[in-house]
Amino acid sequence: MKPDPSFEFPVRTAGEHAADAVVHAIGVIAGLIGASWLLVVTAGHVSATEMVSLAAYGAGLVGMLSASAAYNLAPPGRRKAVLRRIDHAMIYVMIAGSYTPFTLNRLDGAAGIPLGVAVWVVALGGVALKLFASWRYERLGFVLYLGLGWAILSVAEPLWRSLAPETLLLLSVGGVVYTVGAFIHTMDRLPYNIPVWHALVVIAASCHFAAVAREFVVT
Question: At which positions is Zn(2+) bound (predicted)?
Fold first, then answer.
């Protein structure tokens, strides 16, 4: 009988596991502090729509980092298999959450609302895919991650007019770092590929956090 792929996990050395634990600790702590700070400093200074969109962004960021830590640091078994599905699903939530402050508050309605709705629809489809049919469509899931992340290019011109140059640079650098990391994650024979991937996620997420802060905190 062919083994259930949902119970097959990457084989890592003790060093790789330790490095991954350090990266996740840094990511989760930084994410919690950053998201909390963002909501505290903007409370009472931004509109209700902006506040809701920032909360969605913060929840997606912290949720993704926490789900990744829970899955990657858990011992092999049924619980880890469930956590992997949640981890992979939360990536879609994080991507959509990262779009939300910009599509709702910085892009004009003709560009922002349709893109925001489309991103969330695809993201929720990706969540369903990862939760209920993850191992049947792995390649599709990978393509959706990248496609959803770079869908921002479809509104490049209005984005260029709406955002500060620093914000555009931070968003671009973060997108490139995420993309490089995603391909490193697929290189199973590369030593430390998973800790490196997660370190790049933390770096890319930091770039996007700085972009959000630049737009909604720094005036």
Answer: 198
**Residue 146: CATH number of its domain:** 1.20.1070.10
pLDDT of 136 reads 78
User: How many independent structural domains does the chain possess?
Assistant: 1
8 within domain boundaries: no
User: Which residue ranges make up the annotated binding site for Zn(2+)?
Assistant: 198
Those residues with Cβ within 8 angstroms of residue 42's Cβ, 6 or more apart along the chain or in another chain: 50, 51, 54, 216, 217
Q: Look at residue 138 and tell me whether its pLDDT is greater than 90.
A: no
pLDDT at 16 over 60: yes
The mean of the pLDDT values for the chain is 93
- Domain residues for 18? 13-216
Q: Residues marked as binding?
A: 198
- Give this prediction's pTM: 0.93
Q: What's the N-to-C CA distance of the chain in angstroms?
A: 62
| Arithmetic mean of pLDDT, 36-55 | 96
Question: What pLDDT shows up at residue 37?
Answer: 98
